[in-house]
Amino acid sequence: MDLSVAVVGFGLRSGLWRHAHKPGEGSRVTLVCDTSERGRADAARALPDATVTGELQDVLDSGVDAVLVLTPDNQHAAVAVQTLTAGIATFCEKPLDVTLEAADAILTTARETGTRLYVGHNMRHMPVVTQMRDLIKQGLIGEVKAVWCRHFVGNGGDYYFKDWHAQRRNVNSLLLQKGAHDLDVIHWLAGGYTKRVSAIGSLAVYGDVASRRDNSDRRMGEWYSLENWPPAAQTDLAEEIDVEDISMMNMLLDNGVLASYEQCHFTPDYWRNYTVIGTAGRMENFGDGPGETIKVWNTRTAYGFAAPDLEVEIQDGDGGHGGADPLLIAEFLRFVRDGGQTQTSPVAARQAVAVGILAAQSLRGDGSALTVPELDPELVEYFERGQSA
């Protein structure tokens, strides 16, 4: 029998419904909840056989087996705590929320109710990440000692500075909202969690753009264009912008690994570069999509660029983010049915939120290093057991 699935929030990440709606193959989206008239209209067109509502209570009372929480970030806990309390297995899109208190409330509720929680860190299924992690696990670069990530967000003006992403009250910072992906990947590749973090950053470009507009009547696909260049010539930015468009952070992990993350929203190119340095070599990705490469150096060379000792092609997959999105939803639905371990981790998701929040506090202060608050050890143990009592 198909699992019945609800979707709460039919906006930017609503496309995930396609991977959950497989009538006769194991799951079916039967209910969509969105507080906006446009969201409900979009859902009705996409899923004509589903019930569409503006009331979360309808979801809580529906008896569905699972729910995808795809609301704006600052509403994740407000919804997920209720769906977990109602006993509905819950997929929460990343980041968990925009405050540490809200993120911890989600994990605490999952443990107290015994309801299954899954967090949508889809990059743990992206080929560039899984292949790099496999190379590390094979011992090709020895013991990891440093991880660096440079994130060139070439679409930053279109993606993050024309709607709700541009306000701190909605996202806290883009180090959290956008960086949660990379912070989780850094932790996963390094095999540890950040315990101290410091950061600097600023609103260097988009704050000076005079062309502003209330874009609540539009969605990103209606204004996105490669012709929106150079960044200072962007038009119709959000009326209020108080998040940084360039940020840099340094991290000390609990296993001694040193890490750094740099994020810029006004570059012409759009990709992530991870460099991982170990006791026996280093590796780096050149491009992060299918057909691009991961290179490994193990041989000492004289001064100057040297050809890598190993070059690995990044794989492809069907669906969004190199096939990561369908794998993400498939793992969630398998978890709903069978339980057990998952490639994503609620504890890791919380740690990414914590680091992003503390980094924003550091950069908005004097750049001093701040200590990440520890998570309740009983919560850690519960989730490490695969959410079993």
TrEMBL record:
- Specify the Gfo/Idh/MocA-like oxidoreductase N-terminal domain's residue ranges: 4-121
Q: Name one Pfam family in it.
A: GFO_IDH_MocA
Domain of life here?
A: Bacteria
Chain ranges of the Gfo/Idh/MocA-like oxidoreductase C-terminal domain: 133-365
Which Gene3D superfamilies does the record associate with it?
Answer: Dihydrodipicolinate Reductase, domain 2 (3.30.360.10), NAD(P)-binding Rossmann-like Domain (3.40.50.720)
Q: Which InterPro entries match?
A: Gfo/Idh/MocA-like_OxRdtase_C (IPR004104), Gfo/Idh/MocA-like_OxRdtase_N (IPR000683), Gfo/Idh/MocA_oxidoreduct (IPR051317), NAD(P)-bd_dom_sf (IPR036291)
**What family name appears in the similarity comment?**
Belongs to the Gfo/Idh/MocA family.
Q: What is this protein called?
A: Gfo/Idh/MocA family oxidoreductase
Source organism? Arthrobacter horti
